[in-house]
Fold this protein.
Amino acid sequence: MRWRGRRQSSNIEDKRGMRAPSMGRLGAGGIVRLLPLVFRVLGFKGTLVVVALIGGYSYFGGDLERFLGGTGFETSQTGSSSQPVKQSEAEKQLVEFVSTVLADTEDTWNELFKQTGNSYQEPRLVLFRQAVSTACGTGSAQIGPFYCPADQKVYIDLSFFDELKNRHEAPGDFAQAYVLAHEIGHHVQTLRGISQKVQQSKKGLSSVKANRLSVKQELQADCYAGIWAHHARRSRQILESGDIEEGLAAASAIGDDRLQKQARGYVIPDSFTHGSSGQRVAWFKTGLSKGSLKACDTFAAGTL
């Protein structure tokens, strides 16, 4: 990506120097620590279901409030003490990179909202390490990047990019940009009232039907990430050869089918919450090719 020397966003909150808050009994870290007990109670297959649930939100993790069922983790106040941020040169460059990508998403969505007669409310990007207090509760780095609709902020522990590269074999700066653009997509859904409608529609539904709505919401966020890439390439020419391939590889790497296959050797489509690798790639490509909100109506699509 041709990102160096471009405008960086001012909507950055750096909480990397804050002491990590306690996760409490319901935090994601607490869930992971309880896995041995879950294994004993549920057996191997039951444990993998829990792992798949966590994993589904670990890789481009939707929004934290939806993951928590709207109730939130226990909130800790221990994250208020701050220390000077110690960072390597590589991490410093990552901060500059995500600030630049965030600024570019602002340019895209400000223009698209303006075209519809609306104003785009820019979200804030919060950098943290290990855990962070949010308006949705306490979020852990173990659930990956996430969006909290209650405070309209995207949260990310930059170490996730190492996992994306090494564990999921999805390297490259555009793969990282796609992660951020997907979370910004959830913010766009919140501003457009889509997230609220999905939450309301889920009430009283079976888990299978609720999961299907989640998949549609996630695939739409992938499509919105494609919209950003469309305009970044067409209007500002910041994409280079190979960038799109990096984004497609990242979308494929975190499909529910691929993650479940890795975790237990087989897949359960009714348990999908984000969509298969093929679906995620397809909807990202739809946004990339069309560049319009109308093209990303996953809820009206006959097939995903």
Summary: The chain has a mean pLDDT of 83. Residues 12-296 form one domain.
